[in-house]
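A.,

Following up on our hallway conversation. Structure tokens first:
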């Protein structure tokens, strides 16, 4: 159980790194690292909760989240110039904001009776916290490519929540979630590329006009 809670803590740390990095390429590397931690969490949960379906979940998560999604995002950075794009929120504010999110989510989860071990509630609070961390990433970043990572963080959080609360779901459910996330990232990267070609910048503040 200590290993599971430790890995959950690493998820928070890697989320901070994903948001705080100045370039999307570095964020993609830390996202791959976070996804690897998520895979290890699935493996630990599979043994702890006797949910053998999670072993298959870990394989699917490794292929899509650790390999494919970061590769797509890193490839996208090769065609986009991020050097002139402001970074957005000062990284100093991320630590207190993240701490507040984790405490708030744990406070929400604590009084709820759930069909899982009491000691796994911190992990559930971390999974719920990733929805808010993803939102923080989206609204705090001026780099529109980095805003895509907000969705990725939210998706990792939903994946972990599902593993905790519906770990007996068939592998087809996990495959559907993973492929949906993969195609969503592909579509968002294509949109970012279209925007960059149109306005020659990744700065979200430059998106001030809508033309039909």
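Then the amino acids I'd put at each of the 212 positions:
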């Amino acid at each position: 159980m200590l290993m599971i809670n430790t890995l959950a803590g690493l998820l928070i740390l890697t989320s901070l790194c994903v948001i705080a990095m100045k370039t999307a390429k570095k964020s993609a590397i830390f996202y791959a690292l976070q996804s690897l931690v998520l895979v290890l969490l699935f493996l630990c949960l599979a043994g702890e909760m006797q949910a053998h379906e999670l072993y298959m979940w870990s394989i699917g998560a490794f292929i899509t989240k650790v390999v494919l999604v970061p590769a797509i995002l890193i490839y996208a950075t090769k065609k986009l110039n991020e050097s002139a794009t402001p970074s957005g929120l000062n990284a100093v504010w991320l630590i207190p904001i993240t701490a507040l999110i984790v405490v708030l989510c744990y406070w929400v989860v604590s009084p709820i009776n759930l069909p899982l071990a009491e000691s796994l509630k911190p992990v559930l609070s971390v999974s719920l916290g990733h929805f808010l961390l993803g939102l923080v990433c989206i609204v705090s970043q001026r780099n529109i490519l980095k805003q895509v990572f907000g969705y990725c963080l939210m998706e990792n959080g939903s994946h972990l929540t599902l593993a905790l609360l519906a770990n007996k779901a068939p592998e087809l459910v996990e495959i559907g979630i993973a492929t949906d996330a993969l195609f969503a990232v592909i579509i968002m990267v294509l949109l970012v590329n279209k925007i960059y070609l149109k306005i020659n910048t990744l700065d979200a503040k430059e998106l001030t006009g809508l033309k039909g």
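The chain has seven helices and no strands. Curious whether your intuition agrees with the design.

B.
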